Sequence to fold (239 residues):
Amino acid sequence: MAKPVVKKEYTLGERIYLLEILKGMALTWRHFVFNVKASFRPEPHTVPTCWQYPEDRTREISPIFRGLHMLCLDEKGREKCIACGTCAKTCPAHCITVKKGKRKEGEEDKYASKMYCASFDIDLLHCIFCGFCQEACPKEAIVLGREFELAQYTREECHLDKQKLLANYRKAKEEGKLRPPRKAVPVVKPPPKPEAGAPKTTEGKAGKPAVAGKAKKGQVEVKKAAEKAKGAGKAESGD
Ligand code: SF4
Ligand code: SF4
Fold:
């Protein structure tokens, strides 16, 4: 709905302009003095409005930041991925390719499940870092980490294979940059359906009669009035 525009009533001081200009200049001066003072502070935050990146890398990254992908290992160091392909199906950019492999005997310490990904490729040039793959993964095997410096010189370097993805996980673990495990989302159960044959309540909210009941009452009144008018019309035509 359109919002009506209320015309502002200006005070005398605002209509003169000069006072408002002086107020604006005072604000600019205050910021100038603040910045000059701040530029004499010790490094690295010399200017308060700017982070001196890349010299200063102390800025905290948001816990929900989505950076470079990694393939996670479980607490026993085994690959979590079961090659179900859900991430590839969910990816809106179609940049994930997964190939299945079957675990052989004696490989139980390498792969957590009977099926594992023989190859896992991500084309970072297509990826939009939406995080859908991470959300869809049933095993929390693929995670978008906190690494954000992704510039490369060649296209090939923007291609992540399984070894690179596992290396990203190991690097993040060494640097203590692994995300904490996600909290389980509580499942809200729908209210139970009324049993078949149970009497339907006509009560509305807070014990008030339901709207349908009101409508019915109104309909009856209209019908009575129409009948009355009809009777009156007949009487007139009889005269
Ligand atoms: S972050 Fe999004 S676009 Fe990138 S691989 Fe995952 S699902 Fe695909
Ligand atoms: S990363 Fe997760 S969703 Fe993707 S194939 Fe592996 S287990 Fe499935």
Observations:
- The helical segments are 12-16, 18-38, 86-90, 132-136, 162-174, 211-238.
- The first helix runs from residue 12 to 16.
- Residues 69-174 form a domain with the Alpha-Beta Plaits fold (CATH 3.30.70.3270).
